Amino acid sequence: AGSALSAVKKMLIKTFCARMDHGGCGLLVEVENGKIIGVKGDPDCSLNRGTICAKGLAQIERLHHPERLRHPLRRSGAKGAGRWEKISWDEALALLAEKFQERIARDGGKSLAFAQGTPKGLELYLMIRLANVLKIPHVVTPGSICHMPRETAATITCGFFPVPDYDHPPAAVLVWGSNLFQTNEEGIIGSQLRRVLEGGAKLITIDPRKTALASRADLWIQPRPGADLALALGMLKVIVEEGLTDREFVEKWTAGFPELREHLQGYSLAQLSAATWVPEEKIAEAARVYARTRPACLQWGNAIEHNIHSVQTARALMILKAVTGNLDSPGGNVNRPSPPTLRPGDFVQSKSFPEKREKLLAPEYRLAAMMGFTPSQVAVKAILTGKPHPLRTMYIQGGNPLLSYAHAAETYSALKKLDFLAVAEIFLTPTAQLADIVLPTATNFEFDDMGHYGLPHGFLLARQKVVDPPEECRPDVLILNELGKQCGLEKFFWPDLRSCLDEVLKPAGMNYEDFKNAGILKGNWKPNSYERSGFGTPSKKVEIYCSRFREWGYDPLPTYREDFPAPGGDPRGAGNYPLILTSA
């Protein structure tokens, strides 16, 4: 008995949470004989300081779930009939390469598409790299309803994506369409906000639903779903007309403020109140608290993307940060440059495919094209209608379009119509059940990875491997790397995953082993960085009035219009549209 007990090997390994959301919490993972038996928050991690959420705790269950995919599968009956045969990885990769090369030979690859759910690591970059070297322009993502409108609006307005600075900390937090106590945002975790609130910061929450955050707010604003832009314009109107702006910053570092002042005169507060269902006095109160309480940060969330005016709403909120002097100022929303790593553009081999933008399915979606992705519904329509040209082969990873794309019946018809569909997954999801080939993937804890690469949060996290994956489960990054080599593109890919990670870290003067020891790698964060070289826009200022938008045919200033004007102009949508659908 004594010798048997001594053979038991227990270890406590430091890593970071990932893939349940964008992650960020430091973890202590307890391993016994190669199996995870416990997960808890790392009290030494500066991000979460020992806290952990339900998703982090649930990861053990996911790793050991009996329904997890464990072998490559090939469809052996009709699509969706549920009949499969096991195949080897060599067979799976050979079949994939054959299908890809067949399409490229037939039409240059324009009928081939890659698709990604929300990226959580390097897998999206490997996918884009493979697509670029194959000259495949179509990388389909849900970006139009997830983060990209905010990132696009921010980049065009000030040249970077501003993140809340909870470290200094803010005296007030304006939470807009975010619910950090229940679901984390990109790069921001709930415990960071909780510490600021426990320190006495004022809280304004804007949410149609009374969330836990709304329940503890000093001021809860409950707008009509979809009226965020009208509410932002109402707050801007109060701030500008009552002289609550940071005049020095506005005069020196913004372009287009006089045009904004004139533009806001075109709206009455009563009109904006009617559009939002928020009383005029509450709009004014929110504006005054945010503008007068310094510093103040704006914690915006994914809900911003879930309305028709997503980019213009994000633009209005960018302007709100700027005119109050809370942009790139300690305790406000700041610029967090990334640590020195391989540039994402170099990683994805963007120079190898300079003509990509002209070959996208819908180049008229100029902002999506600027970010290099194809909106999901554009791809669905192309499959079904063949316009502007058909898509016939698709590779999907990290996503479940049948459940997450709009119009499930239409998406189902599109997926069934494909000549060939490959899905890399952890479980046999509804989307995977429609595939011709299913590849079993490894999940976090089962391979070396890094968090937040290419994201605008200014840090990288070493998500080191903790346990081995099931024998035939492989990380998405490794699958794509090997598929690239199978397609005859060895010079663009790596001998193994560790070589890839080492190359990403080479500009920092370290390899992955060094990175694991460091845990977190931060960029050179300095407040008020614009004072040295201006903002990353053509004018070197925050562009309140956007001349590029005007040239492209968009409103150069955020402009609110009713989505579905009803008979008599009732903003509540009586008549043909009596109901408003929103999402929790």
What does this structure look like?
The chain contains 24 helices and 22 strands. With 584 residues, the chain is α/β, with parallel strands linked by helices. α8 links the parallel β10 and β11. It is globular and about 70 Å long. The N terminus is likely disordered.
Annotation keywords:
single chain, 584 residues, alpha/beta, 8-stranded mixed beta sheet, 4-stranded parallel beta sheet
Rg calc: 25 Å
**Strand proportion:** 15-25%
| Broad shape | globular
Overall average residue pLDDT: 92
N-end to C-end Cα span = 54 Å
User: How many helical elements?
Assistant: 24
The counted number of beta strands is 22
Strand order of the largest sheet: 5-4-18-17-16-6-7-15
Biggest beta sheet attributes = 8 strands, mixed
Q: Strand pairing plus helix content: what structural class?
A: alpha/beta
Low-confidence stretches: 1-6
What is the helix fraction of residues, given as a range? 25-40%
Secondary structure topology:
Elements: H1 2-6, E1 10-16, E2 26-32, E3 35-41, H2 54-57, H3 59-63, E4 73-75, E5 84-86, H4 89-107, E6 112-116, H5 123-133, E7 139-141, H6 148-158, E8 163-164, E9 172-176, H7 190-198, E10 202-206, H8 212-215, E11 219-221, H9 228-241, H10 247-253, E12 254-255, H11 257-264, H12 269-276, H13 280-292, E13 296-300, H14 310-323, E14 333-334, H15 344-347, H16 366-371, E15 374-375, H17 376-385, E16 393-397, H18 401-404, H19 408-417, E17 420-425, E18 437-440, E19 449-451, E20 459-463, H20 476-486, H21 497-505, H22 512-518, E21 520-522, H23 530-533, E22 542-543, H24 547-552
